[in-house]
């Protein structure tokens, strides 16, 4: 049974990120793209900093390990900064349909990086089939004109692909860092780094605040992408990575185009074709195929959402089984069945 908190985090990630495309469409009429992203991170960083200062102890706010620093850099530089900067730049040159397909390569690219960088996340054949169905569904929802897939927008498509690559790599590096900081505090540190990176890119591109048109529509768009698709969505998304792993967390990007399409229909009066409805069903079929035990993880299988074991506990348990004559491999209960509080069928019995 999937943990309720995990379901809420997944839905929040999908819905809030999906609304980004509608808000960005309004905001890019008033902001230069990189400056728009940088201002988004400025506002999100201030909001999240205030939140963690009020809700966390002083000790919990301080990075203390190399893993903490690595997690912050992976979050701010890759998962947030470069991913969004390149996304907003590339979106200027491609249709929303093509952009949605390229952005949805994130879940496909994540297992590639995980295979080299993570020992505990592998994609099974069944999981691969589910992901392929998800990508097919996204293609049906986006329904791009075949004539525009490679004509006139090659630069934008390349930039969008690098964006998806940075997002996938960032999520895997976060998992690899194994930080002690909780995901919300780590994100609060990462957002100022992302803001610094995108402001530097904006200056290098020759963008200026003078080019901004400060209309109510622009301010609403900035407020949404900063607070809802920024601070709140990042709390949900990075918490999801810590809870269920990079591969499963990034499945949310299959739902994002569905949410964006429904948002365009509800808020912008856009039409939804029968092909898009079929795409929705194919996406959901992909999730059904993935199901439980979709990810084969040698050595350490992922726990059920919300029951992730601390790495130090895993090491000590592995040592305990190793000294017991290697019986762990034959035990019907894996180490991952032992919860961090010491309960569960996989925990070693007290002598």
From TrEMBL:
It comes from the Archaea. InterPro entries: AA-Vitamin_Transporters (IPR050638), EamA_dom (IPR000620), EmrE-like (IPR037185). The chain crosses the membrane at residues 34-55, 67-87, 93-118, 125-142, 154-174, 186-206, 218-239, 251-268, 274-291. It is found in: Membrane. The keyword Transmembrane applies. Residues 7-141, 155-290 form the EamA domain. Keywords: Membrane, Transmembrane, Transmembrane helix. Residues 324-351 are annotated as: Disordered. GO terms for cellular component: membrane. It is a multi-pass membrane protein. This is DMT family transporter. It comes from Halosimplex litoreum.
